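Hey L., structure's done. Input below.
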Amino acid sequence: MGVVALVPAAGRGERLGHGLPKALVPVGGVPLLVRAVRGLFQADRVQHVVIAAPPSDVDTVNTVTAPLAPAGGAVHVLAGGAERSDSVRLALAYALRELPGTTIVLVHDAARAFTPPHVVRAVVDAVAAGRPAVIPVLPVADTVKEVDAAGVVVATPDRAALRVVQTPQGFDARVLLRAHEAGHHATDDAGLVERLGVPVTTVPGHQNAMKITTPFDLAVAEALLVGGQA
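Output:
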């Protein structure tokens, strides 16, 4: 079972206000990317991690992440693209070209730096069991409204059927390649796979897998560390 995790981490992270690429912003003195990659390897399912980094920071990213790889594994850093989807395509092409035997691919956000290893294991194990696409999810706690272009409510979806999607998202490598080659657009890789008509299965996510994109999110993450919950 060749499991490779792709981490699109080329975003600049202006909303975090640190003057650093988002993936290198520290939480508790440790960059988000380092925490995310460490968690992937701690799941004991991932052999290789391919990071699509900001072109100007490839060397820095390689320096801080290379030591995280376990025996027999490695971190591979390449220059990412202008958009997240571009970075995923570049990392996927690298994995399939340079890492023979890749059968399962994870796509993971560096901003979800505190995703517990057991969530990673659940995703990988579900794909290994024959599911072509698997995503971790949480129930929606808030009421959600659908509105039109003028901001007028047109519907209230039943939240019992709604889920918040997290990462890593896991795929049969051939399925993810087909999805990206199809040229469609979606807000996540599972959405691209859905456009192919391929079923996407869910597994339970975790509250700690929150996406850190704002200063408030950073403060919450720091509080989790102080409280020993992350």
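The first helix runs from residue 32 to 42. The longest strand covers residues 2-8.

-- N.
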